[in-house]
Amino acid sequence: MAAPIEVAVCTDSSAQLWSCVVWELHSGANLLTYRGGQAGPRGLTLLNGEYLLAAQLGKNYISAWELQRKDQLQQKIMCPGPVTCLTTSPNGLYMLAGIAESIYLWEVSTGNLLVILSRHYQDISCLQFTGDSSHFLSGGKDCLVLVWSLCSVLQVDSSRTPAPRHVWSHHTLPITDMHCGFGGPLARVATASLDQTVKGLPFRAAQLPAPLGPQCLWSPIPYPACPQLWEISSGELLLSVLFDVGIMAVTMDLAEHHMFCGGSEGSIFQVDLCTWPGQSEKSFQSEQDSGKVFKGHRNQVTCLSVSTDGSVLLSGSHDETVRVWDIQSKQCIRTVTLKGPVTNAFIMLAPVSMLSSDFRPSLPLPHFNKHLLGAEHGDEQRHGALTLRLGLHQQGSEPSYLERAEQLHMVMCSTMEKNVLGGQDQLRIRITELEDEVQNLRKINRDLFDFSTRIITRPTK
């Protein structure tokens, strides 16, 4: 079986030649191009490895292409307003869109609009799911980052207002970027803002919205860019790195050994997360840490992505170029020039549907409703469609992941105790059996010793 192919997926704001281009990461060969609109920043996503979705810049619809039928726009998903950001769940079941200050959540299989979350006060700027699809994060121009439990959002009664699990309100200017590492509810999260800070945050699922604690070095006064990394299980601050320029994009490699921060002046900074044990603060000096800076872009960096093996960094910029960097040497190994400022650029493993010309999606995209089901002027539910909601009696009472782990540990311990020790009668019987076995082994040992002694001491003829 051939090794998976890594591809780069890119869009720019002009869309003169195409809406989106896909090229092989290491050779630079163009594989696919898609035509039909301009994708906005953080508005490009893959749906279930079968469709490419692009939120159109300043328009109230989302373009959808089958991965192989690239020259034919398959569907326009109409929305109540211009879509500012877009994402889909890794399991392919849900789609999220930021429209003004609200988050719209659709069920992909039916096209039903399940819920509208309106907890931000200004436009949504970025959305992201965790790797296990259990939570999602939203960042907005209101300086807030909200963490939502998908389970809680789907369980909520229509008469109740869904509440986020966390509210991070310590940025002082609009949120520009977010990165969520692996680990589901135990993932590390980094957020970037126009207040010249990048903050790494824990994903503690058991806590409702609350301040992050006395160890967080937040302040209403904008500091130089300050990437911070937190431990999720304890919520403690692990690392805070100060920069002297604003940070516009942030990402980490899969192993989370390095964090990469894109600056407003075009530089990309590499923060080694494993080289400062015991230190919670460090100032990144470009002169002293020159070996950790990627230089080449002439304008602000808008997007960053790292290859699966952690050897290659992809960056997009307002200077209308996408660059491929060798992380170890910090050298640019390829430059792709586009026709406008880069709005999206990321690395992914090419799905089978992208490389097979005869592949077709398992299911067609449904009609996506613009209104909640049951609304006074909403769309009618399609015949044969079934909306499934989790039990309302569980709302607000589900245990945290740490509580579940503790319960599982207690069950395992009790089961082990019962299996190994048993009741008192069984214990006494087992002790008696072991004592008899010891006596038997001692007798065998004595017999062997006597036999060996007779053989050794027997006179030779």
| Annotation field: number of helices | 4
- Gyration radius, in Å: 29 Å
Structural class: mainly beta
Taking pLDDT < 50 over at least 5 consecutive residues as the criterion, the unreliable ranges are: 204-224, 231-236, 382-386, 388-396
Work out the helicity level. Answer: 10-25%
Kindly, what is the distance between the CA atoms of the first and last residues, rounded to a whole number of angstroms? Answer: 73 Å
Biggest sheet details: 4 strands, antiparallel
Please give the number of β-strands. Answer: 30
Q: What integer is the average pLDDT?
A: 80
Strand portion? 35-45%
Shape: extended
* Strand line-up of the largest beta sheet: 3-2-1-30
Spell out the blueprint of helices and strands.
Layout: E1 6-12, E2 20-24, E3 30-34, E4 39-47, E5 51-56, E6 61-66, E7 75-78, E8 83-88, E9 94-99, E10 102-107, E11 113-117, E12 124-129, E13 135-140, E14 145-149, H1 150-155, E15 166-168, E16 175-180, E17 189-193, E18 197-201, E19 228-230, E20 237-242, E21 247-252, E22 258-263, E23 268-272, E24 281-283, E25 293-294, E26 301-306, E27 312-317, E28 321-326, E29 331-337, E30 342-349, H2 352-355, H3 401-420, H4 424-457
Parallel strand pairs: 20-24
Antiparallel strand pairs: 1-2, 1-30, 2-3, 4-5, 5-6, 6-7, 8-9, 9-10, 10-11, 12-13, 13-14, 14-15, 16-17, 17-18, 19-20, 21-22, 22-23, 23-25, 26-27, 27-28, 28-29
